[in-house]
Amino acid sequence: MGGNFPTTRRQRQSVNTRRITASLPSTDPLQKGPTRAVGRREILAALLAAALNEEVTVAESGKRQQVTKRKAVIVQLVNE
Fold first, then answer.
1. Are the C-beta atoms of 63 and 54 separated by less than 8 Å?
2. Residue 27 pLDDT level (bands cut at 50, 70, 90)
3. What is the CA radius of gyration of the chain?
């Protein structure tokens, strides 16, 4: 047999491993970790706070009044 082809199974595995590791980036931009998880929670918390602080018009006892979504959700949960 001639050429530069690996002949034994161990040589083929060695060549395949080298090719795979050489093609992977050294840092993964989508790597999961504690800092990314904390950042996602902070973003979610900020979005939720902003949404709950918006005002809506509610008709209670025939009167219309402006209340925050936060208050409307709490009142609805308590009354049910």
1. no
2. low
3. 30
